[in-house]
Specification:
Structural class: mainly alpha
CATH superfamily: MFS general substrate transporter like domains
Shape: globular
Number of helices: 17
Largest sheet: 3 strands, antiparallel
């Protein structure tokens, strides 16, 4: 059967022949388990690097703007160059191989980054880490959409958030713990290289990549179902035309995500420096408290996001986009007031409330994209969507650093930059995503009609 998409590129895709039933429950959940592990390592790397940021700045003599480049654009440059091409591999080749190769590169380059001796060398290592992670999310979401039926997909994506939660929580804790451990180590010298404590930490956290890659290779590749084009991935131009043809659905999601990522990820990489500069906290104290807050609030967010999306789905066809809009609207005031709190504990409490809503919103946002995107272009559309998340999130780290240095001119005024950016970007995110509620609901109704006819 041919699925004609109104206003799209024509006869986009055909239903894949010979695909019946779904993978065995054990195979699906093993695949989900190892994807969660790989997701955790990707986020662990980012959080550990954020916890090391202040020490890196001191030891390498960096400015806030240079530090912003390391925690932001460094990861995006290679993502821009290889993200979409690697996503095409997701649509063509067995996805478990693409994921295994990516996590191997991420872990290996993270460890090698521990040998960096200058801003330029560290910048290059962070670029390559970004390249390794660029195919992970498109491959992960594409596999999950073929492991689990639509009714169970939001729950599977909710479980996937455990990788995000575990990686970030462990990254925060390990960053603080390992840094406090290696602080007592003397500065080392090896083959002309100077090794500070934070460099040893990078080497430690990159090592598990090879183990996780091996576990990914043991996963069963699920058969692709839904829309395919003669067994091939659609050309990039055709995918972009399709996105533009259905811009009333995709653009609110993409642009809203860009606003929210600029703020949420920008704040994330500056939270440890913020607590150090504003409240005088040590990295060890930050690691203990932030990891606890992140763990509790992230688990609550993943659980609440799944239940909230499923509850709305019983009442509205547009449940996924509606849920994301509501959750962003609640998160905005929490992020705005957090840097204004008189103590670090109260600031973390506000951050935690925003984190619950922010992570909860990820479940319906990702489920929305997978629900309306044909299989033949799912990896590439997901890559474009996540490019907005990563690229603008990286710019958020750079934005806050530049505003602190160039607008306020004082490292101690980092909190002012955080308040200013949150006050502008998060309300814009909620407003923009809300524009996609009705178009998304109409598209879900159309898809349900087609699925009923083909049953």
């Amino acid at each position: 059967m041919v699925a004609d998409v109104p206003g799209a590129i024509g006869r986009v895709a055909e239903v894949a022949p010979g695909v019946q039933g779904w993978p065995a429950r054990s195979a699906a959940y093993y695949g989900l388990f190892v994807i969660i592990l790989a997701t955790a390592l990707n986020f662990l790397d980012a959080q550990v690097f954020g916890m090391l940021a202040q020490r890196i700045k001191i030891d390498l003599g960096l400015t806030d703007e240079q530090l912003g480049f390391l925690v932001g654009p460094a990861n995006v440059i290679f993502y821009v160059l290889v993200g979409i091409p690697l996503a095409r591999l997701v649509d063509i080749y067995p996805r478990k191989y693409v994921l295994a190769g990516g996590i191997t590169l991420t872990g290996g380059i993270t460890a090698l980054g521990g040998l960096a001796q200058s801003f330029t060398q560290l910048f290059c290592s962070r670029m390559l880490v970004g390249a390794g992670g660029s195919a992970h999310a498109p491959g992960a979401y594409s596999m999950l959409a073929d492991y689990f039926p639509p009714a169970k997909l939001p729950r599977a994506i909710g479980f996937l958030q455990l990788g995000f939660i575990g990686g970030n929580t462990l990254g925060i804790y390990l960053g603080g713990f390992l840094l406090s451990l290696v602080t007592a180590w003397p500065v080392g010298h090896w083959m002309g290289l100077t090794l500070h404590g934070w460099q040893w930490v990078l080497m430690m956290v990159g090592a598990p990549g090879l183990l996780i890659a091996g576990l990914l290779l043991l996963a069963r590749e699920p058969p692709r179902r839904g829309a395919v084009v003669q067994g091939r991935s659609l050309p990039v131009k055709a995918v972009l035309r399709e996105i533009w043809a259905r811009k009333s659905i995709y653009l609110p999601l993409f642009i809203g995500l860009a606003f929210s990522a600029t703020e949420f990820l920008g704040l994330q990489v500056w939270r440890a420096p913020f607590l150090i500069r504003t409240y005088g906290w040590s990295e060890a104290r930050i690691g203990r408290w932030m990891s606890l807050v992140f763990l509790v609030c992230s688990l609550a967010g993943a659980f609440f996001g799944t239940l909230f999306a499923e509850w709305l789905a019983k009442r509205y066809k547009d449940a996924n986009v509606r849920a994301a809009t509501i959750l962003f609207a609640i998160a905005a005031p929490c992020e705005i007031v957090a840097p204004l709190m008189p103590s670090g504990e109260l600031a973390l409490l506000c951050i935690g409330a925003a984190l619950v809503c922010g992570l909860a919103s990820a479940v319906p946002q990702n489920a929305a994209i997978q629900r309306v995107t044909p299989n033949a272009m799912r990896g590439q559309v997901t890559a474009v969507y996540l490019f907005m998340f990563i690229a603008f999130g990286a710019l958020g780290g750079q934005l806050i650093g530049s505003v602190t240095q160039r607008v306020f001119g004082n490292d101690a005024d980092l909190w002012k930059s955080m308040v200013l950016t949150a006050s502008i970007l998060l309300p814009l995110a909620a407003l923009t995503i809300s524009r996609g509620i009705r178009p998304y609901g109409r598209e879900v109704e159309r898809l349900e009609t087609l699925e009923a006819r083909s049953a």
